[in-house]
Amino acid sequence: MGVAGVAILGGRFDPPHLGHVALARRALERFGLGRVAVLVAADPGHKPAVAPPEARLELARLAFAELPADVELDRHRYTVDLLESGRFDEPLFLIGADELVDFPSWREPERVLELARLGVATRPGTSRERLEAALARVPRPERVELFELEPHDVSASEVRARAARGESLDRLVPAAVAARIAELGLYREG
Fold it and tell me: How far apart are alpha carbons 36 and 94 in whole angstroms?
């Protein structure tokens, strides 16, 4: 029997930033869930990570330390494989609205929606027409829950670029994450 009442937030977390933390916090509040499972992709197939998996795992633990979160490396290549492992009962799998557009191209999207609901974070000003067009392509739209998230103007690529230049990461990542990135010399040029 798997863990029930949990949100799943997966990704490269290269590095984790304040947008990721806000997404997890908002989903816990909005859906009344007790925990979030933060799964750091050990070997992301669609886009390679810059930092090694162990460093990204450590950064994720620091980033989500204030939330009721279990943070671990995920060695599943596909979401459907993770969900079929039976670890979670009726989880809410969190994605951004931009990922919803690509969801029909995921491996076995119908099966994913049998095993989990999708929690799709939208931002104020997200095109309603674009969302409706994306939902029309989803195999089981009744299994998709939209929720609004205040925008955080941050991306992992921006954090990496600033770290490479030795610039401040204030207001982009939690302070503990910024300190550890500096200590480990992650994302530095050369």
Answer: 10
Please give the radius of gyration of the chain, using alpha carbons only, rounded to the nearest integer: 16
Place of tokens 């279990």: 70
HSE, side-chain direction, 13 A CA sphere, residue 125? 2
Structure tokens at 190: 């050369």
Q: Where exactly are the structural domains of the chain?
A: 3-151
CB-based contacts of 190, cutoff 8 Å, min separation 6: none
- Residues in the chain, overall count: 190
Q: Per-residue pLDDT tens for 61-72? A: 999 999 999 999
pLDDT confidence bin for 173, thresholds 50/70/90: very high
Q: Which CATH number is correct for 3-151, 3.20.20.140, 3.40.50.620, 2.60.120.280, 3.40.630.30? A: 3.40.50.620
Task: Read off the pLDDT of each residue in 141-147 and give the average, rounded to a whole number.
Answer: 95
Map residue 20 onto helix, strand or coil. helix
- One-letter amino acid identity for 142? E
Q: pLDDT digit string (tens) for 18-61?
A: 999 999 999 999 999 999 999 999 987 677 899 999 999 999 99
